[in-house]
Amino acid sequence: MKAKYVNPFTDFGFKKIFGEEASKPMLIDFLSSLLPESNIVDLTFKDKYQLGKNDEDRKAVYDIYCQNANGERIIVELQKAKQNYFKDRTIFYSSFPIQEQAEKGEWNFKLEAIFCIGILDFKFDEDKDNQEEVIHTVQLKDHHNRVFYDKLKFVYLEMPHFKKSENELVTRLDKWLYFIKNLEDFQQIPEIFKDDIFIQAFNKAELAKYSVEEREEYEHNLKIYRDYKNTIDTAFDEGILEGILKGKIEGKIEGKIEGKIEVAKSLKENGVSIEIIIKTTGLSKKEIEKL
């Protein structure tokens, strides 16, 4: 059956539902259900491109980076497939909103809280045998398991573990997780979503409302997502890289240089080593480093 709504795990779909000015009510509602302690009444989108102190420094590019009325920073990252050093990456990304709060001259080092949200379309390796835990909350704690610093929190949503059916949904967060996980499969709006915020979310996600250019962009984005996720998940699940080395990206890495560059960019952005990218695409190390 042809999809009526976007896949929210694509960059295009996620941005449409949560990352545009017109999407703020949905983003606020979702984050409020996940971070009730933050008391979010309004949000301001911040520049998602975080630069280092100079041209040689590493940069960070967030899916969504925003700030609430209290000055708290919130990063929302959609992670489509496993990658090497994923946790390291989230820690590194959290360092930018910390550093940007530094003030020139006299400063007492007071910081506003930072929340890093990761929506994961894969399972943590250490949770392969645990099929129930969806929400992982991580904070700095001391050896007595007491919170040492309450202004830095990481929340990971392990979406493959969310298996509730419609009649099992209890909380507002339950509804959002059910919405995100099943949106692409809906052909009509379920009764449980008949409120203004979710109606807006479904309207933003409806493919028929997009222009021809937007539909083309989405279809292109969807194909990249499926090809990339299938390849990377296969490689990690089997513990080998046969999926990549055999060029199992539906033939897209064979022939056109544009296709090779596209694949290389996706792999590089998700932490795949240059050696593997070279074997996957046939591009040179110099070409890949320039991307």
Write the layout of secondary structure elements.
Elements: H1 11-18, H2 24-34, E1 43-45, E2 49-50, E3 60-61, E4 64-68, E5 73-79, H3 86-99, E6 114-120, E7 135-141, E8 147-158, H4 172-182, H5 196-205, H6 212-238, H7 242-245, H8 257-269, H9 274-281, H10 285-290
Helix pairs in contact: 8-9
Description:
- This protein has helices spanning 11-18, 24-34, 86-99, 172-182, 196-205, 212-238, 242-245, 257-269, 274-281, 285-290; strands spanning 43-45, 49-50, 60-61, 64-68, 73-79, 114-120, 135-141, 147-158.
- It is α/β, with parallel strands linked by helices.
- The chain has 2 domains: 11-209, no CATH class; 213-290, no CATH class.
- The protein is globular and about 55 Å long.
- Residues 240-255 have low confidence and may be disordered.
